[in-house]
Write a structure and sequence with these properties.
Elements (H helix, E strand, L loop, with lengths): L5 H7 L4 E6 L4 H8 L5 E5 L7 H12 L4 E5 L5 H9 L4 E4 L5 H11 L22 H11 L1 E6 L2 H5 L1 H5 L6 E4 L1 H7 L9 H16 L3 E6 L2 H10 L3 E6 H20 L1
Parallel strand pairs: 1-2, 1-8, 2-3, 3-4, 4-5, 5-6, 6-7, 7-8
Helix pairs in contact: 2-3, 4-5
């Protein structure tokens, strides 16, 4: 799949784009998920079990499907951006963005000089191993999607300023971390949590950006949609596998009685 600006354009236009988190580090799962109807896939290399080698394989698996692969890196460090992007990620999700300074650092790591500090190498998968480097170098800052995760009360308080940073495309709520740091762990319908969700969405919209979140139920998909969230992830490959296997095992046990 050739990298282009089509997906980012949809995101910034706040068109509905649905995705899933992939935390198993499996290229086969990435290919299956990519052919299942999702608009985007989040290859989770913050909490997922994959390595740099499996990331390459996952990107290759997703690359032969219609779904756009976004990589969640483990930390807001230049080297982590460079590796994910050179391997062919169409965007990066950055955890734990709470300040403008952190958001600006992430944007800089996404962009080649003179716009940023991303290291330049022509022979990499993202640039077609050199065959499309000039086009990629010229347009990467317009093609690649950056999602900044809002996971702390400080991040919520600074959401409007973070959304104003040029190059931040999505304010993506990490519901587990945010609820825990707010002291209302896993209470995603708590009035204070819902208020935080609204603040993030309003901040994103004010500055022409998208609001995103990972949820686990249809009820939360609908609730967040009503709040203005359009960059939506529902569930994960690990969760789907675990649920399916448990259901099948339960059927076998029930039948054996």
């Amino acid at each position: 799949m050739k990298i282009s600006g089509e997906f980012r354009t949809k995101v910034l236009a706040r068109q509905w784009v649905g995705g899933s988190f992939l935390n198993l580090g499996s290229a086969i799962t990435a290919e299956i998920a990519g052919n299942s109807g999702y608009d985007w896939l989040l290859l989770d290399h913050e909490h997922g079990v994959g390595s740099e080698e499996t990331l390459r394989q996952q990107l290759q698996g997703a690359g032969c499907t219609p779904a756009v692969p976004i990589v969640r890196i483990a930390f807001n460090e230049i080297a982590r951006f460079k590796r994910a992007l050179d391997l062919g990620a169409h965007g990066v999700m950055v955890p734990w963005i709470s300040t403008v300074k952190e958001a600006e650092a992430a944007v800089s790591a996404m962009r080649y000089p003179p716009l940023g500090v991303r290291g330049v190498a022509k022979f990499n998968r993202g640039a077609g191993f050199g065959t499309t480097f000039e086009e990629y170098y010229t347009n990467a800052h317009k093609w690649l999607t950056l999602a900044a995760q809002i996971e702390t009360p400080e991040g919520v308080a600074n959401a409007e300023a973070i959304a104003a940073v040029d190059g931040v495309d999505v304010l993506f709520v990490g519901p587990a971390d945010l609820s825990y740091t707010m002291g209302i762990r896993d209470q995603l319908t708590h009035p204070e949590f819902v208020d935080a969700l609204k603040k993030v969405a309003d901040a994103a919209h004010k500055h022409g950006k998208a609001a995103g979140i990972l949820v686990q139920t249809q009820e939360m998909v609908e609730k967040c949609r009503d709040l203005g969230y359009t960059f939506m992830a529902l569930g994960s490959d690990g969760g789907a596998v675990a649920t399916g296997l448990k259901q099948n095992a339960a059927i076998l046990k029930k039948t054996a009685k």
